[in-house]
Amino acid sequence: MKQYIHQDAWNIIEEGFEPHLHKISESIFSIGNGRMGQRACFEEAYSGESLQGSYVAGVYYPDKTRVGWWKNGYPEYFAKVLNAANWIGIHVKINGEVLDLATCKVENFRRVLNMREGYLERSFEATLQHGQRVRIHAQRFCSIVDDEAGAICYRITPLGQAARLEITPYLNGDIRNQDANYDEKFWEPIAHDVQGSEAYITMETRKTAFQVTTGMAYTVLQDGKVLAPQTTTSEATYVAATFQVQAPAGQEIVVYKMAANLSSENHPKDQLMAHCKAVIARVAQKGFDGLKQEQASAWAKKWEENDIIIEGDVSAQQAIRFNIFQLNQTYTGEDARLNIGPKGFTGEKYGGSTYWDTEAYCIPFYLATAAPSVARNLLVYRYRHLQKAIENAAKLGFKDGAALYPMVTMNGEECHNEWEITFEEIHRNGAIAFAIYNYVRYTGDAAYLEEYGLEVLIGIARFWAQRVSWSSDKKQYVMLGVTGPNEYENNVNNNWYTNTMATWCLEYALQSLQTVQKANATRYQELLHATHFKPEETTQWQHVIDNMYYPASKELGIFLQQDGYLDKEQILVKDLPASARPLNQKWSWDRILRSCYIKQADVLQGLYFLEERYDIDTIRRNYDFYEPRTVHESSLSPCVHAIVAAKLGDEQRAYEFYLRTARLDLDDYNNDTEDGLHITSMAGTWMSVVEGFAGMRVRNGQLHFAPFLPAKWKAFAFKIRFRGAILQVHIDQRQVQITNISVRTITVYVHGTALAIAAGTTEGFSQELIKA
Ligand code: BGC
C-alpha cells in the first residue's frame, strides 16, 4: 500500500517526482473518452521505466496463444486491444540535450488529474546535465465531446538564461504491446503524410486488418507569433515537424498539439485519412482553449448526473469521484460493439477484453446513472455473441443450441487458455443471465426479453441442463469439475454458487418463456422456431431444478463452497503471518489450492445476487464463516463484502471494505496499479455506496432504501435514474431526504415505509425512526 496521492475532493494530486512510482501514476492519471484512452506518460522523452500506452476502442489483435501444454478446446488466440500510435509525443532538446526526466534534476514536479473538468496537468522545473534550467507546464485531455480527438498544450520556459530549444511534435506508429506473447509487432504502416502544420499516419493491424489513422495539427508560438518548422519528417511509421527556437530567459514557448485517432471500425478505410483531416480541421478551429471549455461543460453535465457527494471525509470523496470519473472515461454506452475491459484503457493486462465483470459488477452502475440504452447496449453485446457462444459450447461437446459464453472475449470467441478457467469457470453464464434479469427488474423493460433476452436465456439454460450429471448415488443432479468465482479452488465438484446460479438460470428461463408467451404469442412462436425449441426441454429443466444437489453443512448452518470444503485445514486469514500475503505472490499454486483461503466472494456472491431467497440469519452465518477465510486478492472482492456487511448492519466492516475498494488504485492496495486501473471493480465501489450504505434495492418494480451513514461522514448524496424519474438521495445523521426531479409522483420505500414523492418535491424520513 502506498499513500502518495494528496487528498482533494476534485483532484488527484502527486507532488514530487519519484521514478519508482511513475508507472503507477501513469495508470492513475490516465485519460480517456470511451473511444480512446491514454496512460499518463510524458509528452517528452523518458528513458526510465514506463508503459507508453495509447489504446483505441475496438481495435485488437489475435495474439497467438501461448501455453505450456496444449489441450483440445483451447482457443487459438488471445485478443488484445492494441497499444496504438503515440499521439502525445513532443521531443524537446535544450541546448542540444534531450529533455528526459530520468537524466535531469527535477524540482517542483506536480501532476494533477482534474476530474471536475476532465484534464491532466503536469508541471516541473528541470535542470539539465549541462546546467540549463527550464520550466514545463503541460495540459492534455481526450475530448468527450469530439471523442476521436485529444489536445495538448505544452509550455516551455528557459529559466536563468536564454536557451536554444528544439521542439518536435511527432506521431509514432512503431509501437509494440509489452504483453505480446511472441514479441511480435502487431502493426504495419499503410500511409503517411505531412502537409503545412498537419501530419498523419495510417497503420494497419496484422491479421485483423483494422486501420487507424492518427493525425495531428501543431502550432508553436513565441511571443504570440506562430513559428514555422525548420524541418519535417515523413517516414512510414513516424511523422514529425521540428522547430528551432532561441528563447530568452523567462519567455514561455507554447506548443499546441491537436490530435485524432480514427479507426476503420467507424469509417470506411478509403476515407479514413479524409475523415481524420476533417476532425483535425474541426478541432484545430475550436482551438485548445475552446476544446477545453467544451470539455469542462460536458464533464459538468456528467457530474450533474452521476456524482456522489460525501461530506466530512475528503479521502472517501476523492476516491468515489475517481472511480466514477474512470468509469465514465472507459465506457459511454453509445456503441453496442464495445464493452468494458477490467483495466479499461489504462494498461495491457487482461487485453482490454470482456469478462463476467461487466455483467456482475458494471451493469448496476450504468443502470442507475445512465439512460437505459447504455446497460441495454451491454446486454445486446452478448446477444450478438450468442451464435459464437453456441459454437463455443459445441467445441466442448455440448449440443442442440446450448451456449457457453467465453470467460474472456473480444468478438464472442473464447480467448482464455487455462483449462481450469476456460472450461471450468462456467459460472459466467449465470452472471450473463442475471444481468438480463437485473436490467428487466430495474427498467421494467420486459420487452427486452422478446427482442433479445429470451434467446440468450434459452441457450444458457440448455447449457446448464446438459452440464449437470445425474448422481445415482445421491439421486440428485451434481455439477462436476468446475471453478467458482473463487479461483483459488479449481476442478471442484458442486460449487454451491455455480449449482445455485445454474438452477436459478433454468427457473428464470422458464419464467421468461411464459412472460414472452403471454406478452407476444407471435414473437414467442418465432423464437421457438428460431431456437428449435422442444416443449420437453422444459420438463428436463424442471427436473434439474427440483433435484439439484447443493452442498451444505447442517451443523454450521452454512452452504458449502464445494464438496469437501470442510476437509481443509481451517486456519483463519487473521492467523496467517503477514509474510504469507498476498498468497498469490508468496505461496505455490499447489499450496493455495489445498488451503481454505478464498480469493473473492463465492458463496457470498450468490447470497448477494439472490438475497431475497435467504433469511438474514442464513446470510449472517455464511458471512461470518466465509469472510474470515477470504483474502480479497481480487479487486472484485471487497465491494460485495461491503454490501453484504451493510445489509447485516455491520457498519464498521462495511466501511472498511468500502475504503479498500474505493482507494484500491489510488493507494495501490494490491501492488499492481502499475499494470492499469481496476476499472470493473470501480463499479463495485459505486455499488458499495448505493447498494451498501444506502441499501438501495428494486423489489416488485419499486425502489427501496435502507440507509445508514458511515460514522466518519457528515452526509452523502447521489442521484439515481429509475424508470423515467431522477431522484436525488441525501442522507445525513438526522434524516434521509429524497428529491424527485421528474414530472410524476414516485413512491419509494425507506426502511420499508412508503414515501410518495410528488414531482419537484422532497420528502424526508427521520433517522430517529430508523433507530426506533
Ligand atoms: C478475478 C475474476 C475477474 C478477472 C478480471 C480475476 O482476478 O478472479 O473474477 O473476472 O480477474 O477482473
Fold and architecture overview:
- The protein has 772 residues and is of the alpha+beta class.
- The protein has a domain at 11-306: Glycoside hydrolase, family 65, N-terminal domain (Beta-galactosidase, Chain A, domain 5, Distorted Sandwich), CATH 2.70.98.40.
- 33% of the residues lie in helices and 26% in strands.
- The chain contains 20 helices and 32 strands.
- The strands form seven sheets. Strands 1, 8, 9, 10, 11, 13, 14, 15, 16 and 19 form a ten-stranded antiparallel sheet that branches.
- A hairpin with a 2-residue loop joins strand 13 (187-195) and strand 14 (198-205).
- The longest helix has 35 residues, at 272-306.
- Residues 342, 350, 355-357, 485, 487, 599-600, 634, 636, 680 line the site of beta-D-glucopyranose.
Descriptors:
772 residues; Beta-galactosidase, Chain A, domain 5; ten-stranded antiparallel β-sheet; five-stranded antiparallel β-sheet; 33% helix; 26% strand; binds beta-D-glucopyranose
